[in-house]
Amino acid sequence: MILDWLQKLASAHPPLRPPGAVLPEGEFEKKCIRCRRCEEVCPYDSIKMAHGEWGLKMGTPIIIAREVPCYLCMKCPEVCPSGALEPATRKEETKMGKAVINQETCLPYSGIICRACYERCPIYREAITLKDEIYPIVHEDKCVGCGICENVCPNDPASITVISAHFPEE
Amino acid sequence: MTRFEKFIYEHLHILRRLVQVAALLFLVAVPILNKFGFNEILGTFYSIKIGNLDIVDPALMLQNILLTKEIYFPMLLAGIIPLIIALLLGKVFCSWVCPFNLFAEFTDKLRKKIRPKTVKFHNHNPKPHYYWLVFGIILTAVAVLGVPLIALISMPGLISGQIADALFWGSLGFEIIFVLLILTVEVFWAPRFWCKYACPVGATLSLLRSRHTLKIHYNPRQCSCSSKYLPCNNACPVQLDPRHAGIYPYCYNCGECVDACRQEGQALTFTLQPAEKLSAAQIQNRKQMID
Q1: Are B195 and B70 in contact (CB under 8 A)?
Q2: Is there a contact between B196 and B239 (Cβ–Cβ < 8 Å)?
Q3: Residues A161, A100: contact at Cβ < 8 Å?
Q4: How confident is the model at residue B190 (pLDDT cuts 50, 70, 90)?
């Protein structure tokens, strides 16, 4: 059981922070008071809580995009009491991370038509566009990193993943 | 004494238990209601939002100021409400609401059962220095290490957070082990050390005290117990001696001693009046009367 858990921890893709979370991670960790209001207000149950295995980060909110992404309803920044999630954030202005396409596994790049990420992207036709009407391309400046694309990608593991702004992968 | 006061005095113990259980039920009800989409009441004992009213644990407000070195105004406002309640009524949050105190009181009963030798406890009122020393160490650690230590060790917060997580996700974190560890230490080694000395939440609530804050008043003329049999000392959950001065900041106004004394001479009462100034001779005289 412990081995399973360690393996899961080692292979886990770093999670996202809720929209509006202050950057960098150290600052967020100091401001968050672990009150769970964002967890409770989230209508999609996207926000989960980091537990003891996260050490000092325990009790802080995380979003695992592959399970449930953030649908950018922006209810959580409003209820945050400590300013860890900045209250006056528009969904287009949040920066939870940026999506990256793995062209080696992405279906259109190997000849199969797929528009899953393009069609579900909440920043429609801005954050993800299609090159030659076939190949999806991410525009980093527009992408908010909500993780919906990662969630809907039919490949396993997903060909489009969101690199968290708070936990940049090495 | 008004009828309301009389009612409170007569049902002090049962009223307190009712409030404590209601607080625990509140912690269970809030996540369930939110799970079904009712978002008017949000939060845990770290911070609660009822409609538009925001309440934050003042200890966390203090922690935030120390960590970020700036003041976030909405949080400052939200943290003042509990401080005002504490200024009027003392640390009543600890004794009447905090779920950890409820658990600790019952594990303390367990201690008296399984370690009968420790039942006869020699109550005394320790100097307030110890209390402020521990609190000072915690605050210094927060400021120097830059770690949100108060949020990580706040017992009401951890317990209510774990209840919320368990109801939302059906899983408990490692944090709960920390809570159980402290309860175990309290049973086998240091009875009620957490609430009495270590808790930063309680310490923040006892920062503000005025002459008119709710307090226990002792009238030696009405005291009818001998020093061999002291129901007030036996009843005190944190091993204080309410007959002597200096029970604050340790006393959290639970009223167990008042309740125990009601059967005897009714020498202990709650009061909002400032304590009368005693001369040195009078204090000496009173000490002789007690011993």
Answers
A1: no
A2: yes
A3: yes
A4: confident
Assigned domain for A9 exists: no
Which one of B46, B66, B144, B167 makes the best mutation probe of the A interface by having the most chain A beta carbons within 10 Å?
B46
Rounded to a whole number of angstroms, the distance from the CA of B29 to the nearest CA of chain A is 12
- Closest in A36, A41, A83 to B39, CB measured: A41
Sign of CA dihedral B12, B16, B19, B22: negative
* Domain containing residue A148: 92-164
How many domains does chain A fold into? Answer: 2
**And the tokens for B102?**
């409820």
Are the Cβ atoms of A52 and B175 closer than 8 angstroms? yes
Facing B72 at nearest CB: one of A27, A41, A82? A82
Which residue shows structure tokens 């370690």? B115
Residue A81: list chain B partners with CB under 8 A. 43, 47, 49, 54, 56, 74-75, 78
Q: What pLDDT was estimated at residue A7?
A: 52
pLDDT in tens, B234-255: 888 988 988 888 888 899 999 9
Q: Which residues of A touch B157 (CB under 8 A)?
A: 34-35
Domain contains A148 = yes
Contact A49 B165 (CB under 8 A): yes
Q: What is the distance in angstroms between the Cα of A75 and the nearest Cα belonging to chain B?
A: 10
Condensed to tens digits (0 to 9), the pLDDT of residues A60-102 reads 999 999 889 999 999 999 999 988 998 877 888 888 999 999 9
DSSP state of A131: E
* Same-domain pairing of B166 and B267: no
User: Which pLDDT value is given to residue A10?
Assistant: 52
> Is the CB of A48 inside 8 Å of chain B's CB atoms?
yes
